Structures are given as C-alpha cells and as structure tokens.
Amino acid sequence: MNVAASLLCLTEDSLGLTLPIRLRAWDGSEAGVPGAPVVVIRSKRALRHVMWQPGELGVARAYVQGDLDIEGDLGDGLRAMWNAVRDARIADPTAGRPRIRPRQAARAAALALRLGLVGRRPPAPDAESNLTGELHSKERDQAAISHHYDLSNDFYELILDPHMAYSSGFHVTPQMTLEEAQTAKLHLVCRKLGLRPGMKMVDIGSGWGSLTLFAAEHYGVHVTGVTLSVEQRDYVMGKAAERGLADKVDVSLRHFRDLEASGVHDEDIDAIASIEMGEHVGDLEYVVFVDSIHRYLRPGGRALIQQMSRSNDTPGDRPGGGPFIETYIAPDMHMKPLAKTIGLIASSGLEIRDVQAMREHYPQTVAGWAKRLEDQWDTAVKLIGEENARVWRLYLVGGALAFEENRMGVDQILAVKPSARGDSGMPSSPLAWLPDTGMIDR
Fold it and tell me: What is the pTM of this model?
C-alpha cells in the first residue's frame, strides 16, 4: 500500500482540486507532482491533529509540533497551494474547502483504520493562547497582549531592527535595509504629525518604543507611551534612561481607556499616534478608541493611525485573519476593511486628511524579519523554544503572502481635529511630509 498516494488522493477528493505538491509519508512512500514542493508527514500524530481539528488549525498544530513540514522554501510551498486553490475556485467557488460527504467520510474512516490513525486527540501545542474572561475587558486585553509581546525581549531584539519597530517599514527604494526602511517610516510619521520641539505627543500601543524614543530624540517632543505589556514598558524606560531622554519620555502601563490616569487631559495633546495597535481594539470598542483620540487632541492637533486591514471578501467571522493567527499570534485581533476604519475615524469628528497605502511595503519588511530569524535559528530556539520558533516561521511567511496577495493591507491614516471655526492648520500639500529629496526616486 502506498500510504502517500492514498492520503493525497483522499485529500484532493475532499478539497475538490489537484494539489501542486509532492507528499512524503512517515513510511518513506511518495506521491504527487515530481519536482514540486515536498510536504512531509513525519508521524501519524500529524493526521490525528487534522482528524480532530479539520482545516487550518489542525494543520498548524501539526506543523508547530514538527509532525508536518515542507522541504525547501516554505513560502514557495504555501504560494503554490494558494495559487491552486485560487485557480480552482474560478470554476468551483467551494474548491479548497473540505467537503466531507458520506462517501469521503467512509473512505477516510476505512483509511484511518488501515493506517492505525484512530486515537486520542493529541494535546495542543503549548504555544497556543488560552484566553478567558469577557471579550475586550481590560484584563483579557492585557492577557492577549502579554501572550504575544511578552514572549522575550531578547527574541524581538534578535529579529527586529535596532529601532525595535514591530510594524511595516517604509521602503522608499527596494535596496533599503530593514533599519533604513524603519527610519524612513519613523521620519514619515513624525513629519505627518508636524512634530516640533516642546510639543506633547501620545503613542498608543507604544511597543518597544521605536516611535516614542525617536520622536523624543529627533523631534524634541515629550511623549507619553501607553502599553499593556510589562516587558515593553520596562524596556522603553530603560532605553530612555540610557539615551538621556528620561525627561522627555514616560511610558504608562495602562489601557487606552485610562489615559487620564497617565496625566493626559482633554484638548491638551498636540499629536497622537497609534502604530498597528488599532487592530487589537474590538469592533465595538473602536468607537471609544477614536472618540478618545478626538477628546484629547487640542484643536489643530493631528492623529496618525497606521493599521492593518482585511479585504472586503474576507469572511466576517474571521476578523483576526484566520484560525492560526487568532490562536497563536494575536488572539482577539479585529481587522476591518479600510473603508470601515476611515468611516469610524471620521465619525468621531476628526477630519481625514491623507490615506497612504503601504501594503507592498510589508512583505519587504517581513522578509527582513524572516531572514534574521533563519540566520539565527538556533539562538531563537534557545530563547523561545522550538514550537514558538516554528510558530514564528509560519507566521512570517504566511503574513508576507497575505499582504503580497492583497488579502491583507496596511495604511497610514492622517487626521486632524479642526477648530470650532474649521481651521486645521494643515499644510497645503503632502509634499511637506515627503522624505528628504535625496530619498525620493525622481
């Protein structure tokens, strides 16, 4: 019996498409397209994961635990699979989704018995999140942030650029290094916000302080950072002390709904930034989020929100991007189509002044992170363990492809709080915040 051929035939029948892969089973048998990416099923436990949890999450569990792998470039393998599904759906919109009809169920049961696959549900990887409590309560939000961002400061230093910017860079030219692209992004944000020495700024979701420290050091503003991560707060305050910025930087371990306790008062702030934090704000809570920004900005104050979005055809029940990312990376994340986000920001009374799509920049940024991960794989495993390292490998590759294929986007949305008379104080042209002329491709 050719185990690989039997498994591949059943899988293709259930999905309604021909898979552009070669499959190798635990017994050494192979089947499928010669020369195609090789999917390796290393143990029967991989199939038990999928039997107990059909679909993306079951496959992810098998991969994370090392029972399922792809030889060669993981990105090429995933890209080939998604291209096959996309092509098949032109003829059949249901292709690529498991269709377990009685005939397939009977064949699957018979094959499982012959191969000895029937058994107890395998334990889920320790890397999975396990949140409890009311959705988007302060306690649950803090647990969700801690799950991802408190993984290890040393690990994030391993894969991120020296700014510790965990968001899309601004690749003015394809030749830019990761650090150069992040520096360009930080300058772009600060210039869009019109920062000048002596201004007061709030950085909601300040992370490891890339923007907080940069704005204080290079633009002379006083920045109040807000985070729910203890690891991040301590990291930023340590860096501020090292750089002599302690008088300009304060990081508060608070929810954005508690800004008053951080010394932030109504109409007292010149600029507010939120760099890829709005995705962690629930759909209903987003109104409170943008209303708070409007409330604290002075008239003429600017807000810049850099935020990921999902395409309009993404199923509404998967606002976080799918079972894998919602379980392992960003539990409770809620991405919206760009148009909905803009509408919610405008409904707060803020005036939208500029929207800059940066979708093509993210795959370049993620490629830099992925390379650093692979180049220092053994160190990463020592820092966060093999399972978490495999989670990150899958996350970075899959995320880059999602932006590349327009299933996800990222945009910078610049808004202003006009005065009662409608004055915005905005420059007449976006040329005011473009990079220095030496960086512009003329």
Answer: 0.90
